[in-house]
Amino acid sequence: MHSPLKNSKIPFTFYLFIGLAITFVLIVIGIYMFYFGRNGVSRNPSDWGPFGDYFGGVLNPIFGFLSLIALLITIHLQLHSIKASEEAHSKQNEYLERKKKKKNGNQLFVT
What we know:
By secondary structure, the chain is an all-alpha fold. It has helices at 10-36, 45-110. The chain is rod-shaped.
């Protein structure tokens, strides 16, 4: 029986999303440090508030978009899985019908 998940590229897609997320985080931190980090890392907690706002404001839409893409990939894989299950169910029903007809045909000759 053919499994749609065996030939899918789930591991590649997973690593791709993880790699993209890490890349985006590093890019955002790099841009922030390039423009605002000339004085080094601050020990003042009030300086970290604007960084958190910047970080969240830039990365949240990107991560939201990546989540949407991941959801669409999941739906696509589920549709293929459902189609494969329906095909297997249909083949099983055809087999059982042939077996039933053969059994009924053999009983006609016995009686």
